[in-house]
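Hi Q.,

Before the meeting this afternoon, I wanted you to have the cobalt (II) ion prediction in hand. No need to reply - just skim if you have a minute. The sequence and ligand are here:
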Amino acid sequence: MLTSINHIGIAVKDLEASIEVFRKIFQFENIHREVVEEQGVSVGSFKVGDVLIELTQPTREDSPVGKFLEKKGEGIHHIGFNTDNIQGDLDRLKAEGVQLINEVPRPGAHDMQIAFLHPKSTNGVLTEICQHK
Ligand code: CO
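Predicted structure with the ligand bound:
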């Protein structure tokens, strides 16, 4: 079951510059940095309440975020929702006719298992579900 918002992913061209922009807004002291090779991204994340904001710069142009930037430019890329049973939710959603990008979970940032639902099935909002290992 999807229980809460885990994070909001924002596609950026220049991670260091965007960290400074968001630092002015949210006044965070610490930022968590991580490269997720699997997704082709370099991530800087900070918390607003219980929700992570993930500033995401592609590490290669042909990564999903790289293609997104090329097509749509910078902005909100996806919303990540916590689930207590990622494979169960993927199976349920598939049975409901929701188009999945990942039918089995993949490794994501913050040591989570993640999977994406196709924006064609979600009114254009790229939706991620994620579960802590
Ligand atoms: Co994400």
